[in-house]
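Q: What structure does this chain adopt?
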Amino acid sequence: MTREEARKKAEDLVRQMTLEEAASQLKYDAPAIERLGIPEYNWWNEALHGVARAGVATCFPQAIGLGATFDTELMLTIAKAIALETRAKYNTYSAHNDRTQYKGVTMWTPNINIFRDPRWGRGQETFGEDPQLTAQMGCAMINGLQEKRDGFMTAAACAKHFAVHSGPEALRHEFDAKVSKKDLWETYLPAFEACVRDAGVEAVMGAYNRTNGEPCCAHEYLMNDVLRGEWKFEGHYVSDCWAIRDFHEKHHITEAPEDSVSLALGAGCDLNCGCTYQRILNAYEQGKITREEIDRSAVRLFTTRYLLGLFDKSALDEIPYSAVGCREHLELAYRAAIESCVLLKNDGTLPLDKKNYHTIAVIGPNADSTAALVGNYNGTPPRAITLLQGISDFCFENHIEIHYAQGCHLFDNTPPKKPHLGYLVTEGVIAAEHSDLAILCVGLDAGLEGEQGDRGNQFPSGDKSDLLLPETQRTLIEAVAKTGTPFILVNASGSPIDLSAYEEQAKAILQVWYPGGEGGRAVADILFGNAAPQGKLPVTFYYNDNRLPEITDYAMKDRTYRYMTQKPWKPFGFGLTYGEAQIDSVQVDVVEGGKESCFVEKKEQGWRVTIADKVFYQRAAEEGLGITVSCSAKYDTCVSEAVQLYVHVNGTPNEVPNAKLAAFGRVQIVPDAKTVRRFFIPANAFTTVDQNGRRNADGNGADIYIGFSVFI
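A:
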């Protein structure tokens, strides 16, 4: 069904509704209109990394881990699997007349906000700090969720939170994010633009906060000038949950709920997650909104429902419940976990040779933690293989003895009757002393970093206060290190943690994010060499003593790899693997009249292409540029790598300080063969954004860097 066909059906349906009926459909928990054959529908559902909050579903790695894969093809496949499970659940729940929350097919995902500050608790929900990576991964997820089957979308995606939103969590309901036009168009809007223009996302969700004084769920510039005006968005706009109530209770820009209804509906916020649109009829009676505004939003919402085939019979109705958590999806979750894990340090100890170890200690608060697998906005995995279980299963099969010790609590939240602070450390020390190797499983979970109000923790707002592990874990690591037993750090977190203090002592450091239900199996296979870590950092890992701007400061200066002036602990795009690959040659597409002014040279970190001719540069800024890369394995080992291409425009003060990611893609490299792949750098990578937010091709040339890591 085309959008035009769906809209006409929606218009015909809404035309038959009374005022009261049409108004009732603008709430997330829309009631049935039996006389028109419309069943109740709850718009609120989540699918950040699997169908969430609706019981059992395949749990893929948390979004930040998916970002670390740098693999849009994998993301597309995962999103298709999530869409199938979404429909399977919808079909079976509907058959039992259960149409309540988390049972629909409108998924409020992906979160494409930019992870600009490493302390932000919800950064784990994003694909990282880079607009290009976020845009490409977000588009892949949207395309997978919205894949058409039998003429209808399998599910509807929602790009959130529009548009300038990334903390602080404690202030989000009252906060005004002040941002320059340059930062707005250079950092905060590009991923949303791609999701709308390139992927055709069906919904956009407004943020809680204000941006430059206007609330994001009634923002005339963002919603109408940009989203529906410049970008031609035709889907529906939904508020974050209870965000419209914040207009009068927190932001104090309106005096009463009816005024908030008028402001939001007038600006084009079609659907209210919350309670304020319960006052729509009051606002209408007071002359603050019109019937036309109500009908406009109702038509947009029913257009989506028609596009989803919710009033038509189709093959989507036949997707069986057996799709949920099926073997194929579990294997996909395992593969995603492998691709997401980032090896930050390795002195050659990994992969472990099972013949060299008789006893291994598995120590730490995240060793046997299910919470450390699933992150937030998660479903219940059909099976949750913890790090301890995955390692223990491997060791049992290979006759290696395991000593397990919790070692400490995740943070200092031990029960009131605890013997003393750190009372579990001794057991961890004993386990290490009696082992050939210790695997320390440390980090955070969604109780220590996450959304405001998820649950109480030592960081009550959801944001972190620093970039260090909780003190209890630091004490444990130091105690185990003193035993002299070699140890490996396995860190589970959804955000950067500064582990530099242990880099010299640890034999290896593996960042596993929140790796999903199959995470323990994947991590064990990486440790013992059945698989190789393949992830790259989608965020900068700062030193804790790097002086970061205040989290309330939305200027991009000194934030993320594109703007930072200090040396990070580990840079964006970094990630080791087993084996080693190299880029043997780089070939630039011939551009008329420009071949003589394009210089290709091999550098220590990779390759650099210099465009010194202004005519050549202008052509690239108009049409983009193709680059063919040839890779090979250095040794007799297959290698999976992520080729990354960065661009820096020369001759303009408007360019960001450091080269910016312009294109990327995974390559599978086998011994004794060349792997050749062509990459396309889009035209806008050769443009810059001026202080007024305008994008221009104002340089006189550009440098392009190609490698397996970032150039800064």
